[in-house]
Write a structure and sequence with these properties.
The complex is a heterodimer of chains A (628) and B (144). With 628 residues, chain A is α+β, with helices and mostly antiparallel strands. In chain A, strand 15 and strand 16 form a beta hairpin. Chain A is elongated, with a radius of gyration of 39 Å. In chain A, 34% of the residues lie in helices and 24% in strands. Chain B has 144 residues and is mostly helical. Helices cover 60% and strands 4% of the residues of chain B. The N and C termini of chain B lie far apart (119 Å). Classes of the chains: A alpha+beta (628), B mainly alpha (144). At the A-B interface, strand 3, helix 10 and strand 27 of A face strand 1, helix 2, helix 3 and strand 3 of B.
Chain lengths: 628, 144
């Protein structure tokens, strides 16, 4: 064998043989090299773009990231509108191979999200789905995505995770936590419920984008909208960004937070008192606002009916959603009387002691009546008793231009300064277009219309020594990135030119309104002097036709049964801290501002003054503590 | 295949090398060793580089996971803050007052001068002094 091998070796190792072998190997290497080179050329040069695109598709992740929308707070940082973190529950049914696991998952989902039942979940968890093509044929495809629940609360997801987790190490079944995934979501939350709902507004979500619909949400959308950024980065197989890659991941800036001038406890007091009015008088509506006359800052503002931003079924009533205090115009009635009287005092046409003939309650010449029949009233009593005839006679001394000036200088027929695009200016004709009766109607609050905000501003002007403030609602805007609060500067005051001495006299008259024999004795607050004025105006209603016969059931004009009853006042009278105006739209069973609106003023102000720790200015009646 | 040293053109390769290096074949081994060392060094650098990259990726993943955990905690904080805001609304508090029959009444003017909120430990160290009340408030026991 050995010899044979040696002989064979000789033949194999012969130079010729080696040459052949080496050439063969060389040839083989050249062929392999050419093939590989060709392939490389194909991949790297000819098909470069295709493979580059494919590779990028696999290792590159595109992600649209949005910051947090700005939130809304009250003056003291109490949260009014928030972003509530949620989780979208998603599932990949294709990865659930065994029917046993599919049933288990369907059962768990049905337990936690009962919006669908077990059968529906089981059906949706099929590994394949059938898609109809253009030709109507069904194509079988892998079912890799199923959105179980959009924006589930964190608490519910926590419970779901517990149910999905394996029961222990011995549990060899499919780990459902690998099939069910969670992606972050966010919803707009209104933790205070109905409080300030009309002012704050609400948002809708369209295609995962927030669409503000109303209120401050809409007005300050540009301020609160966060930055939206598209990040593209290279990722590892597990989805994390590759640390050494040239990734530029930008964190989007959050929207700015808005701080209102509202004080939440005062707002809560006002809202609670408005609820009482609704229970007691069943009106069509009631709206009120409280402001600081020194700065014009709105401290509380509310209306009924209102809506719950968290409950979409309450959105249907348009009257509940719109801001009635800014959008509804109405004739203010006797709330307008002090302005004409003040101007007459300033022009020395009357003094508080001058007597006016009130025609025993019925002035035939001008077709004007009073609620009670008064013979002669002093100017002071005209305000105290709210005499229409007395006020009209004083206004006639002023003339048309005088009455117009007396009202417009206090901001009637102008916007209040609040950031409401929908705010109405009201209806107020220039004197040249007044008819013969207008001079007697306008000073008593008819023949022109206003909003509650205009009235509030005007009374702030009376309370603030004739300086008419622009109303303010936004205290500041805070950048959440830096934490810096940018305070919104006050727009300042408009000088009305009112004489402080005469204004003081007018305020004394208005204090008498809340005295024992005044029209608003129910607005009196123990320990404080309250200056105020009641107002009751008939509603100007449209004609009502029978839909079947077309006959007019009710004529248009001033109603004899429907009223706006109001009260406007400030306290303490000579050093006012708070101004409040309240209007009740058509209270059932009561029509006077003194009976309906004044008690609400008293109750609200009593609580508000206590909260603000405003010390009583008058001798305080001794309370009996401990007695029930 | 036979890999024994072979003769090419009548001379063995080893013999040729021996002749070229004055009968010493050691430099060849040295060359091979050096070459292997270079290869090893190169491989070590390469493997080290790959290892460090791998570690870097792992740390980045861990950092990313921690970031996500921080985000989760922040989301939970935000959620709790929203819940607190809901629980502190007066509507809810007033309901609780009724539900638990707390019968709380607002204080009268001047009735409360200041309120000290103390822990039981702090309260134990504060001397009991008569409460100063406003002059216009009287405490009556009538009707009890």
């Amino acid at each position: 064998m050995g010899q044979k091998t040696n002989a064979g070796d000789g033949a194999v190792n012969s130079p010729e043989s080696i040459r052949i072998r080496s050439r063969f190997i060389l040839g083989l290497l050249i062929i392999v090299g050419v093939v590989l080179g060709g392939r490389f050329f194909c991949i790297q040069v000819l098909q470069r773009d295709y493979y580059l695109k494919e590779a990028r598709r696999i290792y590159t992740k595109k992600q649209i990231v949005t910051g947090q929308r700005g939130e809304i707070f009250d003056r003291n940082g109490n949260l009014l509108v928030a972003n509530s973190p949620r989780l979208n529950v998603e599932c990949s049914p294709y990865n659930v191979v065994k029917d046993e696991d599919r049933r288990r998952l369907a059962w768990i989902l049905a337990q936690h999200f009962p919006e669908k039942n077990y059968r529906e979940y089981y059906k949706r968890l099929d590994r394949y789905r059938y898609v109809a093509g253009d030709d109507g044929k069904l194509t079988k495809r892998k079912n890799q995505y199923f959105l179980v629940k959009r924006n589930a609360s964190l608490e519910r997801v926590q419970l779901l995770k517990k149910s999905l987790a394996p029961t222990g190490k011995k549990d060899k079944r499919l780990n459902l936590l690998r099939v069910v995934t969670f992606s972050p979501g966010v919803v707009r939350a209104y933790p205070k419920g109905r409080m300030l709902a009309n002012l704050l507004g609400y948002v809708d979500i369209e295609n995962d984008t927030i669409k503000p619909r109303n209120g401050l949400e809409k007005r300050f959308d540009h301020t609160m909208t966060p930055e939206k950024i598209r990040n593209v980065y290279e990722r590892t197989p597990s989805g994390h960004p590759i640390s050494f890659a040239n990734n530029k991941i930008i964190v989007p800036a959050n929207g700015k937070d808005i701080y209102l001038t509202i004080i939440e406890p005062l707002q809560a007091i006002l809202e609670e008192e408005l609820n009482t009015v609704v229970e007691e008088w069943h009106p069509e509506g009631v709206f009120a606002a409280i402001a600081d006359p020194r700065s014009g800052e709105i401290l509380a503002i509310a209306q009924r009916p209102t809506f719950d931003p968290g409950d979409r079924t309450t959105y249907k009533n348009a009257g509940a959603v719109r801001m009635r205090y800014a959008q509804d115009i109405y004739e203010p009635g006797s709330l307008a009387k002090p302005f004409s009287v003040l101007y007459a005092l300033e022009r020395k046409l009357v003094t508080p002691e001058d007597k006016i003939n009130c025609e025993k309650g019925r002035w035939h010449e001008k077709k004007l009546t009073d609620v009670s029949s008064y013979d002669m009233l002093t100017v002071s009593d005209v305000i105290k008793k709210s005499s229409n005839i007395g006020t009209a006679k004083i206004a006639m001394m002023l003339g048309k231009e005088g009455v117009y000036h007396a009202l417009t200088r206090f901001g009637f027929h102008t916007r209040s300064g609040l950031p409401f695009t929908a705010e109405q200016r009201g209806f107020f004709l220039p004197p040249a277009r007044w008819d013969s009766l207008a001079i007697t109607r306008i000073p008593i609050g008819y023949s022109f219309s206003t909003t509650l905000l205009q009235l509030l501003r005007a009374y702030c002007g009376l309370a603030n020594n004739g300086k008419l403030p622009y109303l303010k609602l936004i205290h500041g805007i805070r950048d959440p990135e830096t934490g810096n609060m940018e305070l919104v500067p006050h727009k300042g005051f408009k000088e009305t030119g009112a004489d402080p001495v005469q204004l003081y006299k007018l305020i004394d008259m208005m204090i008498s309104v809340t005295a024992k024999d005044g029209t608003a004795r129910r607005a009196a607050i123990p320990g404080f002097q309250v200056a105020g004025k009641t107002g009751t105006s008939r509603k100007n209603i449209e004609a009502l036709k029978d839909p079947v016969t077309g006959k007019i059931i009710r004529k248009s004009g001033y109603s004899t049964s429907e009223y706006y009853t109001s009260f406007a006042g400030f306290v303490p009278a000579h050093d006012p801290r708070l101004v409040m105006v309240i209007t009740v739209d058509n209270p059932r069973g009561g029509k006077g501002g003194g009976a309906v609106a004044a008690p609400v003023f008293r109750r609200t102000m009593e609580r508000a003054l206590r909260y603000l720790n405003v010390q009583p200015t008058e001798p305080f009646p001794e309370p009996v503590v401990g007695r029930r | 295949m036979n890999l024994q040293p072979v003769k090419i053109g009548g001379n063995s390769i080893m013999g040729e090398r021996r002749r070229r290096n004055n009968g010493n074949t050691g430099s060849y081994s040295g060359f091979v060793i050096k070459f292997i060392l270079v290869i090893i060094a190169f491989m070590a650098v390469l493997v080290g580089h790959l290892y460090l990259r791998q570690q870097s990726v792992k740390s980045a993943e861990r950092t990313d996971d921690i970031k996500k955990q921080i985000m989760d905690v922040k989301a939970e904080n935000r959620n709790l803050r929203n819940q607190v805001a809901g629980l502190t609304r007066w509507e809810h508090i007033s309901r609780m007052i009724v539900r638990f029959k707390l019968d709380l009444k607002p204080a009268m003017h001047g009735q409360i001068l200041n309120i000290g909120v103390y822990t039981p430990e702090q309260a134990a160290t504060i001397p009991l002094t008569p409460l100063k009340v406003a002059s216009n408030v009287s405490f009556s026991t009538q009707g009890r």
